[in-house]
Amino acid sequence: MSSIALVLLSNTQTLYSGLDAQLTGTLLATILLMQLFGPLATQTAIKGFGEAQGAEPIPLLADSEAVK
Predict the structure, then answer these.
(1) 53, HSE (Cβ side, Cα atoms, 13 Å)
(2) Which of 24, 34, 46, 65 reaches 20 to 30 Å from 16, CA-CA?
(3) In sequence order, what E strands does the chain have?
(4) Would you call 51 exposed, middle or buried from its count of C-beta atoms within 10 A (0-12, 13-18, 19+)?
(5) What are the Cα distances from residue 8, in Å, to 21, 26, 44?
(6) Could you tell me the sign of the dihedral formed by the alpha carbons of 41, 47, 50, 53, in that order?
(7) At what angle do helices 21-48 and 2-15 cross, to 10 degrees?
(8) Model confidence pLDDT, tens digit, residues 10-67
(9) How many whole angstroms separate alpha carbon 8 and alpha carbon 11?
């Protein structure tokens, strides 16, 4: 999603060359914050509502052969 936002920002800058540089910086910072805190907020919400269950990891083929 961030790549789409960056392309849209680039296209907007091209179309409106008078776009303030401070606005561009603010939009880039917003995209960065969304990419950093979005997954953490999603994980916290999923665990908080009890949607995540503790599942056992699937053993890899190489690990199962080593155990035998």
Answers:
(1) 2
(2) 34
(3) none
(4) exposed
(5) 15, 14, 29
(6) positive
(7) 160
(8) 888 888 888 788 888 888 899 899 999 999 999 889 888 888 776 666 676 665 555 5
(9) 5
